[in-house]
Amino acid sequence: MAVKKSELYSSLWNSCDELRGGMDASLYKDYVLTLLFVKYVTDRFMGDRYAEIEIPEGGSFKDMIDAKGKSDIGDRMNKIISKLAEANGLTGIIDVADFDDDAKLGSGKDKVDKLTNLVSIFQNESLDFRKNRAGGDDIIGDAYEYLMKNFASESGKSKGQFYTPAEVSRVMAKVIGINAATMASQTLYDPACGSGSLLIRAADEAANGITIYGQEYDTTTAGLAKMNLVLHNKSTGTIANANTLSNPKFKNGDRIERFDFAVANPPFSYKSWANGIDTSSDERFIEYSAIPPEKNGDYAWLIHFIHSLKPQKGKGAIILPHGVLFRGNAEA
């Protein structure tokens, strides 16, 4: 039986309980999602020589279990994660959290007990992912949404990041007709991809495959998107880490790249959207002879989104707050 969301959420809550006191609540996700990733890929792919994820010797969750109670458990966990990262091109993505950080996790027996308890939480039999369908669930996305909602937002550091529900993602994919894509070389783009869930759900609707591109401002979240693509057998997808409005990373020469399909759920009412942008010379605003209001970026995202679609044939669906229709014609 696949892991139930209730069991997943219970484990996430218990994990965060173990981390309380030494770090800001907004950092819980860095540690908890890393452990969840290692557990998930070990359960799903260990021993499968055809899997996209390689579980190297000394780089599995089983090795973390062996490290429980050891005085150097933090260092051991770092090395385990590093081996897994190196084997799968995930260095700098899943090995960012330092499990040997005394300032955040305590020192001596305090740290040993805390990390041992953390591993034990994920060792629970109710979190056996071997029967989960690799392409049919969104473990990282679900966990990310839960952690952002319950911990990062409480600390005031949620950065306005929102998860797009699977049902909405699928509707958006159907609206743009991505199922009609005939070649895997056709492109799908999300300029504010978050943890990658919307991209993945949309790409799943392309029966013949699709080439994925996403950009995300937050470094940790961009890493989650890369992890998510790997978990869903879409590791060839490209995730860029930068501010999309001021530094769009996907270019064709010196011009912004155009895509066959696009989906997006960008930050609502982004006030500092114009930082780093010369609106008088930016190709996006010149083309439409329009500059969005200085303190409201909804139309800036919309202009970027439309500009990123191939002329005449590009198709896209974007979620915007209904407030853009009722602001006294400020965007007109």
* Tally of alpha and pi helices: 12
Give me the count of strands.
Answer: 7
Most strands sheet:
5 strands, parallel
End-to-end CA span: 54 Å
The residue-averaged pLDDT reads: 86
Count of domain modules: 2
- The chain-level structural class is alpha/beta
For the largest sheet, list the strands in their spatial order: 3-2-1-6-7
Q: What level of helicity do the residues show?
A: 40-55%
CATH topology of the largest domain: Rossmann fold
Integer-rounded radius of gyration: 21 Å
Shape: globular
Strand fraction: 5-15%
Low-pLDDT stretches:
154-160
CATH superfamily of the largest domain: Vaccinia Virus protein VP39
